[in-house]
Amino acid sequence: MMRAFDYQGSSAKILFGAGARTRVAETVAALDCKRALVLSTPQQADDAGVIVALLADRAAGLFTHAAMHTPVEITERALQAMRDTGADCTVAFGGGSTTGLGKAVAYHLDTPQVVIPTTYAGSEVTPILGQTQAHRKETVRTASVLPEAVIYDPELTLGLPVPMTMTSGLNGMAHAAEALYARDRNPVSSLMAAEGLKALADALPRIAEAPHNLSARSGALYGAWLCGTVLGAVDMSLHHKLCHVLGGSFDLPHAETHAIVLPHAVAFNSSSAASELRPITEIFGGSAPGVALHDFAVGLGVPTALKDIGLQEEDLDRAADIATANPYWNPREVTRADIRALLAAAWRGDPPTH
């Protein structure tokens, strides 16, 4: 018999297709906004300037200081820029760092948001804001931070470097993998999770072989949208808790951390969620979902060890303490000893054992 469930679909408007970025001005107008502050990281300032030009007289200016993990001090600067320019909405251009900043502005000012993603993180379709203060990352979940419109233009991802593409794609896959065993999962979220995993499993190896393959880039962006939507629809568990700790408290790069931790977290939970995780082995092969994800990541050439992205061995105890002090719900009981062992294996780069 089918288990009882609740389901709430996203209210975000999605515009998907090559060249969709040219619709940014009409999208802002449809929100009844007149002056949009365009947000980006310093590295994407020139590309964000193209969006400013497309907005024409609806552009209020360009703020290029978005940073990883959404530090509150950067948010305060962006809020001042909103006031100084008289902006009544934001257009976030780039990856998760810029999307997070747009959400933080909306959280404080309740201003509409348009997001133009250039990576596969998926956070643009979630009502979740992760922000960092005093080296601790906190998560806020509220409808007010869900962007009103998202413009997916695969042409904007053609220049995304292959290593960043691979880790970003695995970051997106992490949302879907945990959605499979989420406490509040439902038939719709599980279907979307499996479809998102399948799309990224197909697209990422094709991009690795031919980075400018627009069809593969479109497939990856489609998968990222599905995985992000699932992240916004159900609660996450151990994997995301660990990544929030490692990113917020140890300043590890977001996508790479997700890519490294995912196989270990899935392997840890596989004994308690074997049937829920079956789609992973069906998509990636093998008999163990954690091993299947590890082998896929190795084939893409992504980092597989936390020691290679900046975590020190002496940090493992503190990371385990923080991760277990206030754990998320998880299908398997979380103990400090188990999490310390999991983190140590991920630090060394060991393949999961099951």
Protein described:
The chain has 354 residues and is of the alpha/beta class. The chain is 50% helix and 11% strand. The chain has 13 helices and 8 strands. It has helices at 24-30, 45-55, 72-85, 96-109, 162-179, 187-209, 214-233, 238-250, 254-269, 278-284, 289-300, 316-325, 336-348; strands at residues 13-16, 36-39, 59-63, 89-94, 113-117, 128-133, 136-141, 149-152. The strands form 2 sheets. The chain has a 6-stranded parallel sheet, with helices on both faces. A two-stranded antiparallel ribbon has the order 6-7. A hairpin with a 2-residue loop joins strand 6 (128-133) and strand 7. Helix 6 (187-209) runs parallel beside helix 10 (278-284) and helix 9 runs antiparallel to helix 11. The mean pLDDT is 95.
Name a few traits of the molecule.
354 residues; alpha/beta; two-stranded antiparallel ribbon; 13 helices; 11% strand
Percent in strands: 5-15%
Give the total of beta strands. 8
Summing up helix and strand content along with how strands pair, one would put the structural category as alpha/beta
Q: Detail the poorly predicted runs.
A: none
Rg over CA atoms, rounded to whole Å, is 19 Å
Largest sheet: 6 strands, parallel
Total helices: the number is 13
Q: Largest sheet, order of strands side by side?
A: 1-8-5-4-2-3
Helix proportion: 40-55%
The pLDDT mean sits at 95
| Secondary-structure element string | EHEHEHEHEEEEHHHHHHHHH
Task: Kindly report how far apart the N and C termini lie.
Answer: 30 Å
Write the layout of secondary structure elements.
Blueprint: E1 13-16, H1 24-30, E2 36-39, H2 45-55, E3 59-63, H3 72-85, E4 89-94, H4 96-109, E5 113-117, E6 128-133, E7 136-141, E8 149-152, H5 162-179, H6 187-209, H7 214-233, H8 238-250, H9 254-269, H10 278-284, H11 289-300, H12 316-325, H13 336-348
Parallel strand pairs: 1-8, 2-3, 2-4, 4-5, 5-8
Antiparallel strand pairs: 6-7
Helix pairs in contact: 3-4, 5-6, 5-7, 5-9, 6-7, 6-10, 8-9, 9-11, 9-13, 10-11, 12-13
